Amino acid sequence: MKQLTGKTKNNIAVFISGRGSNLKSLIKYSKLKKSKFRIKLVVSSKKGANGLLHAKKNKINYFVSNYKIKKNPEKKILLLLKKEKVKIICLAGFMKILSPNFINRFKGKILNIHPSLLPKYKGLNTHEKAINNRDKYSGFTIHIVNKKLDSGKIVFQKKIKIFNSDNAKLLENKIRKQENKYYPVVLDKLLN
Fold it and tell me: Which residues contact 73 (CB under 8 A, 6 or more apart)?
């Protein structure tokens, strides 16, 4: 990631599909004086994503791309990213797989936060898998996106203990709280 000089802030985009809790924490952090980034665009794969409320409330440009209807939904996204001079993309619960062409355009500049300790439990249902396999720990991983699902270079992991009383929902909530805390900080450090 390109190093910043002075008080310049990098323009970032956040891609979401749901509630937007990581988006909310990124927005909050971006308002701090010490922050090295500002959010210029929010992209959602779902029209009714609750996370869009955070974008609206904070007057951040947003775009909803319906992957089911549009033949090439990434074409418009790429135009918007260029218009907003976006340098870094943060995937935050974005439930679509980006095309190899899109990833090439932002090679090494797309971050994803994944709710498991990769390489364990790529893809979906990570909390259920950890509980069903009686793992002692789970957690989350922040990694650089490449063409293989959840396989890019790991830049940060946080381990979280699984208790006997935990179920998948409790584990999900514990992990999400830690994701919200660490995602903005890790992004900021990468930009430093």
Answer: 65, 66, 67
Residue 170 token pair:
């409790």
User: What are the tens digits of pLDDT across the range 39-81?
Assistant: 999 999 999 999 999 999 999 999 998 776 666 889 999 999 9
CB 130 within 8 A of CB 171: yes
Catalytic residues: 114
26 within some domain: yes
If one counts the domains in the chain, the total is 1
pTM (two decimals): 0.93
The range of the structural domain enclosing residue 80 comes to 10-119+141-159+181-190
Q: How far apart are CA 179 and CA 177, in angstroms?
A: 5
Give a yes or no: residue 169 inside a domain. no
Q: Please check whether residue 52 lies inside any domain of the structure.
A: yes
**In the block, residue with structure tokens 């790529």:** 122
Residue type, position 38, single letter: R
Q: Which two tokens stand for residue 156?
A: 């940060």
pLDDT in tens, 134-189: 999 999 999 999 999 999 999 999 999 999 999 999 999 999 999 999 999 999 99
